[in-house]
Design brief:
- By secondary structure, this protein is of the alpha/beta class.
- It is built from six helices and nine strands; from the N terminus they run ααββαβαβαββαβββ.
- Helix content is 25%, strand content 30%.
- A seven-stranded mixed beta sheet has the order 5-4-3-6-7-8-9. Strands 1-2 form a two-stranded antiparallel sheet.
- Helix 5 links the parallel strand 4 and strand 5.
- The N and C termini lie far apart (36 Å).
- The structure holds S-adenosyl-L-homocysteine (SAH).
- The site of S-adenosyl-L-homocysteine (SAH) has 25 residues, from strand 2, helix 4 and strand 4.
């Protein structure tokens, strides 16, 4: 997976590659999908949701540029796979999931695999998670019609927000960086994510 899907496509961060090698992806997919756990695509995880393609997980993580002392927020815990990759790289991960069943399954899975730097929350992550803000980085794994202002507000100075933004079927991966009261935006590749629900997501 790492050689053929990540290195071959230009993922270069040694820390991100090491994190992707270390997290056992087969523990994060449903039993009947295990044969495809390391395949080059997303997989269904129930309730109409998906675990992202390995390359997209690695790319988003690299774009976030996580540092060992960082506290980061993920919106859309899903299976908990991206959460686990982040937990290998930073000091503390908060992750918010809207669907209670997915949140409790991801929580049990991460605990049983020994990921202790993770705090899972159930709720509308389009509002961020103000209780623990500001964050050194925010990563959103569902697509938004536009960037939710609360997520920008919860960024630490110089911190980045990585988020798919666009229409319901096709989006672009955007990186927003806080510079005082202003933000810069850069655009990465075209992507296709499940919709972000909630107040600042799709109705
Ligand atoms: N990062 C996940 C990908 C999950 S797919 C993984 O590695 O498996 C996106 C997830 O976002 C879904 O689980 C969906 O329920 C969740 N989601 C959608 N809208 C949300 C919202 N407003 N707040 C929190 N989670 C949301």
């Amino acid at each position: 997976m790492v050689d053929e899907q990540l290195l071959a496509r230009g993922v270069r961060s040694p820390a991100v590659l090491a994190a992707m090698r270390s997290v056992p992806r087969h523990h994060f997919v449903p039993p009947d999908e295990i044969a495809w756990a390391y395949a080059d695509g997303p997989l269904p995880i129930g309730q109409g949701q998906t675990i992202s393609q390995p390359y997209i997980v690695a790319l988003m993580t690299e774009l976030l540029d996580p540092q060992p002392t960082d506290r980061v927020l993920e919106v859309g815990s899903g299976s908990g796979y991206q959460t686990a990759v982040l937990a290998q790289l930073v000091h503390e991960v908060h992750s918010v999931e809207l669907l209670p069943d997915l949140a409790s399954q991801a929580g049990e899975r991460l605990r049983s695999l020994g990921f202790e730097k993770v705090q899972l929350h159930t709720g509308d992550g389009s509002l961020g998670w103000p209780e623990s803000a500001p964050y050194d980085g925010i990563l959103v794994t569902a697509c938004a019609p536009q960037v939710p202002q609360p997520l920008l507000d919860q960024l630490e100075e110089s911190a980045r927000l990585v988020i798919p933004v666009g229409g319901r079927t096709a989006q672009q991966l955007e990186v927003w960086t806080r510079m005082g009261s202003r933000y810069t935006r850069t655009v990465s590749i075209a992507v296709a994510f499940v919709p972000l629900r909630g107040l600042h997501g799709w109705k």
